[in-house]
Write a structure and sequence with these properties.
CATH class: Alpha Beta
Oligomer: single chain
Helix content: 25-40%
Bound molecules: adenosine-5'-diphosphate, magnesium ion
Shape: globular
Number of domains: 1
Number of helices: 9
Number of strands: 10
CATH topology: Rossmann fold
Largest sheet: 6 strands, mixed
CATH superfamily: P-loop containing nucleotide triphosphate hydrolases
Structural class: alpha/beta
Order of helices and strands: EEEHEEHEHHHHEHEHEEH
Length: 229
């Protein structure tokens, strides 16, 4: 963590009602950097991304983007600052077309970078007028990421993007994340350790709501990461 971080989290504590889920989380991401968070189910990974994106109320500590505090800022305004959150549940508006779903992602910023979306996901071009409810899991994930990059995000928060997807789509997403990282900072929650080891500069292992280790450089090997899960 240092002053060049675009996203800085310090001392983050989060509860759902009486139940405390995150304890003193600290992380930092620089522009152009991919960092990953790994950990078992229930460790608090999704809660961490939701807290940064403004979806959780009971949060204390410090969350900053380029120096500006995000704590207490509404999700809509956080999105407007260029921080785009791609949730784990892959929920889309089933009755809206792919094009309409994509457009909604830029409602806050009114920034429509259509070429970027279709360059990364040529398949979406053919699907623009299809109702999103008819998409496959892989197409839906392309839509989710497409929606986030239709604007020009500074930070992408991506929750388990490859969960349940076919290997060919996972390989495509790996390339996409590698290229996107040149334009934005990425925080990826992912269970696919070979993938995160290949694309990340830094990995945080989270266990029961705490960061138990931070790995970088030649520690980014599947076997080493597994040891912390
Ligand atoms: N909306 C919620 N209300 C209460 N507890 C929750 C809620 N969402 C998640 N939790 C609990 O918080 C913990 C962390 O969940 P989560 O952040 O989803 O973990 P992960 O994404 O690592 O699987 C779990 O114990 C989970 O049951
Ligand atoms: Mg999760």
């Amino acid at each position: 963590m240092n002053h060049t971080d675009i996203l800085t989290v310090r001392n983050l504590n989060v509860s759902y009602g009486e139940s405390k889920v995150l304890f003193d989380i600290a992380l930092g991401v620089r522009p152009g950097q991919v960092v990953a968070c790994v950990g078992r189910n229930g460790a608090g990974k999704s809660t961490l991304l939701k807290s940064i994106a403004g979806f959780i109320k009971n949060v204390s500590g410090e969350v900053r983007c380029a120096g500006a505090s995000l704590l207490g800022v509404r999700p809509y305004d956080i999105a407007k600052m260029g921080i785009k959150y791609i949730p784990q549940d892959k929920k889309v508006f089933s009755d809206l077309t792919v094009r309409e779903n994509l457009e909604l992602g830029s409602y806050a910023t009114q920034d429509y970078n259509w070429d970027q979306v279709t360059d990364y996901f040529p398949k979406l071009k053919q699907l623009m007028d299809r109702k999103a409810g008819f998409l496959s899991g892989g197409e839906r994930q392309m839509l989710m990421i497409g929606r986030a990059i239709l604007g020009t995000p500074r930070v992408l928060l991506v929750d388990e993007p490859t969960e349940g997807l076919a290997p060919s789509i996972v390989a495509h997403l790996k390339t996409v994340f590698g290229e996107l990282s040149r334009k934005a900072a990425l925080v990826i929650v992912e269970q696919n350790l070979p993938l995160v080891c290949a694309i990340s500069e830094k990995i945080y292992a989270i266990k029961e709501g705490r960061i138990v280790t931070e790995l970088a450089g030649d520690q980014l090997k599947t076997g080493i990461c597994e040891g912390y899960l």
